[in-house]
Amino acid sequence: MAGELIARIFLRWSEAWREALASALGAALSWFLAERLLGHPQPIFAAISAIVCLSPGLPSHTKQTGGLLLGVATGIVIGELTTALSDNIPLLSENIPPLKIALAAFLAMIVAASYGQSAVVPIQAGVSAMLVVAFGSATTGSVRMADVAVGAAVGFLFSQVLSAADQKRQGRLIGIGCRRPRRGALLFLCYRYRLPQARAICRNPDALPRVGLPIFVET
C-alpha cells in the first residue's frame, strides 16, 4: 500500500515538474520585465499572473491566459463603477469598506460568470474588483492590468513551449503503441495514470484485453 502511494506521488511529480518549473521561471521573468520595463517597484501581480497561467494540472494554458485577462479587466471595470456609484447610495457613501467590497465582488463575479468561461474568469474578476475598491484604482487598476498583461504574455510564451514538448512526448508514446500495442497502452497509462483501469494494467500488462481499453487496441 505504501509502495503504491509512493509510486503515485512520484508519477504525479513526473507529470507536474515541467509546469511547476515553467511557473517559477515565468514568475521570475515577469517580475523582472515589469520592474525594468514598466518601472513598478514590486510587480507581484505580474509574477502571480504567470503562475496562474502555467500552473500544473490545467487543461489548457492558453484558455487560462485569456480567462485571466478577461477576469482582471472585468473586475477593474466593475470596481471602478462600484466606487463611482457608491457615492450616490446612502448606505455605501458612509465609508463602510466591507459593504463596498461585497457589492463589488458580487457584481464582478456575476458579470464574469455570464461569459460562460472557466472558473478563473469570475475568480479574477472578484479579486480585481475588491482590490480596486479597497486600495483605489491608482494603485490597483491600471497598474495591476499592466502587470497582469506582462505575466500573461510570459505565461502564453512558456505555455507554447510546454505544449510543443507535451505533443512530442505523446507522439513518442503513439509511435510505440503503433509498433507494440500492448506496450504502448501500458506506457500511455503510466504517463497519465488517470484512468481507473491504469492500476490493473501497471500490475499486469496481460490484463489489457480484459479491461476493455480503447487506447491503441485498434492499431
Q: What is the typical, i.e. mean, pLDDT?
A: 76
The unreliable regions are 173-177, 193-199, 207-219
> In total, how many beta strands?
0
Q: What proportion of the residues form beta strands (DSSP E)? A: under 5%
Helices and strands, in order, run as HHHHHHHHHH
The profile of the biggest β sheet is: none
Gist of the model:
The protein has 219 residues and is mainly α. The chain has 10 helices and no strands.
Task: Give the key terms.
mainly alpha, globular, 219 residues
Structure description:
The chain has helices at 2-37, 44-54, 61-86, 97-113, 120-135, 137-140, 142-179, 181-192, 198-203, 208-211. With 219 residues, it is an all-alpha fold. It is globular, with a radius of gyration of 23 Å. Residues 173-177, 193-199 and 207-219 have low confidence and may be disordered.
